[in-house]
# Entry
Amino acid sequence: MISFVQLHSLDNVIVAIDSIPRGTVISEINIVCRNNVPCGHKISTTTIERGDAIRKSNMIIGFATRTILAGEHVHVHNTGMSENHFVVNNNIQTVSLLNDVLRNKFKGIVRSNGQVATRNYIGILTTVSCTNIVAKLISEQFYGHALDAFPNIDGIVALTHSLGCGGVQDGDGMDILRRTIAGYARHPNFGAVIILGLGCENNQFSRIVETENLKIGDLLKSFIVQELGGIKVCVDTVVKHIKYILPIVNQFQRQTVSASHISIGLQCGGSDGYSGITANPALGVAVDLLIKAGGTAILSETPEIYGAEQLLINKAITPTVAEKLINRINWWKFYLNKTGGKMNNNPSPGNKIGGLTTILEKSSGAISKAGTTDLVNVVKYAESIKDHGLVFMDTPGYDPVSITGQIAGGANIICFTTGRGSVYECKPVPNLKLATNTQLFDSMNDDMDINCGQIITNNVTIEEMGHMIFETILNVASGQLTKSEKLTTTLSEISPWQIDAIM
# Structure
């Protein structure tokens, strides 16, 4: 038996589950493979004339740039794409929530303002990269057994970045940075936050407080290195303050709460030909379960929905929400046009090796992470999310930058599907890794949490896998450590979106 899958009866391609040598007879569909086809790649099931649509999962993923004979490898050498036009749907059916009695529960950490956390960290943030070393030196004072007397605290983590000065003092770029830092400062997964400033930077702490309406106190406090007299004095002063607040932060304990308090950031990185077949649609099932229980899912990576935007536009709960998404797509086209870039400058080389041919194919698979529910809002990068349901946040496709925006917006869990393998961790939020194929899960077992490749290798259904993912989400939200949490230290970083020139 030749190992392949045809995802829909109307598709004109199949996907190779194992590598298929040239000359192999695929008797099930009566074709001969005309090329050596790697696993995860596509093979035509019929002759596809130049200009005809190529269909996978009964969705157009591209167009033949020349005649493709039955049995040929279908990839970048014979497939292209064209621009899409948007149609706004005015007839949306809203999702019915489950009754309160039936909603799923988890053990969360309830803050005094009613927000619910999945972790309890003390965070050290910086206004500017010049103070990164200070943040790291402070966090190092709490390595080893320093927190043994405070079992309810998950750690003290320094989150550094590379921005904060050398750019425009007031503009889109600085607005994004301030919004990002404020989003982390308010994040429920931090029981307390210290923000370190240098003193002379463009990104002044006082301006963050003013523009973002931060509430200052013992659990959110700033220290300025130049005002204190340098690195050593600053480190000693902040360490003393942290020791003072440790008993306060340690008082927070987990209690049973509704799953409506879970907000998931949806990510896919290092995608492959299995992403849209296994992990992404299975995650979509889990998202549907969460949203029906009142929770929130954040879909992002605007350049990686390109070509399949209509799928989201069709789900927009109002024409206004649809127009907000269209406006963000158009902004990206304008933004890239200024620099000579193109929206279809994707998939990446790794994606193509894994079998993805066009951004249409990658995007349609990426959107399947969002499930089948309505799109209730579209928000700016790092904007605080108040909605329950499926929300789209405008971010780049680069995973660290996108995840940083989602966490600043309030995501308290990240679900990251990957086919090539990602090791990105994003404190203070647990990052659940979903392998698209069994080979990856086996080879990077210390990093991958869930093997969605079982959909192919073990005949697990997408629905079954989706329920397994949802149960794992509830367990992780309740304190179960992810694989990457077990491996990483108290050092981490954030990657705010940089759109201004550095001068």
Q: What stands out?
A: The CA atoms of residues 171 and 500 lie 8 Å apart. The longest strand covers residues 190-197. The two ends are 61 Å apart (CA to CA). The mean pLDDT is 90.
